[in-house]
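Appendix B. One record, verbatim.
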Amino acid sequence: MAILSIIIPAYNEEQFIEELLQRVIAVDLHSLFYEKEIIVIDDGSTDHTAKKIRAFQQKHKSAIHFFFHSVNKGKGTAIRTGIAKATGNIILIQDADLEYDPQEYLRILAPFSDPAVSVVYGTRYLSVQDVDKKSLVLSRKYKKSYLLAYFAGRILTWTTNFIYGAHITDEATCYKAFRASILKSLPLHCTGFEFCPEVTAKVLKRGYKIVEVPISYDPRTYDEGKKINYKDGFEALWILLKYRFMD
């Protein structure tokens, strides 16, 4: 049976982390012949996130592998810690909030039944009902706080497609899954939110096709703990340009 390594970077997520972990544990992957390896990295949280992860780990014993950064090093560093610890065949990134639904792991894993598939992204921009029409799911009215991120995501996706000759719809999605051998081979340098553009640039530059599957999305507001901002958008744009010519 294959193993899906789920990497969960967490920083000051005491409000959501227990519910998120419960949802991840509840996902049954046996129909696709996968088991779960859940790797949680607390990135130096200053609230009770680490305490709640440890309590959850004690309750569920070996189901959770927990690692702790003594100081905040950034989301990208936490993800790289998780990649180094992962032992699964497929590695998937899961944010610690509740914006993405773990039940959709099944949808993301399905394309990997084809040995030629190396990378799968869950896109928020394709309709679950009709992928071919490519209806803009996120063009529907969401919370006001998401407007800036929406337009930033469109710009980043367009830039990715233009400079790397790709045909994806959602560069900034959290749900990115990779064959472990490929992800572990990439020389990642990210420390913060720039993981997404860096890993996207490097898989495309190496000739891997990104397969997309439609997913749902429930954005949270900044009051609820959303952390990414316009500065991260500018940095992501720079990273896409930078790694077109560097490695």
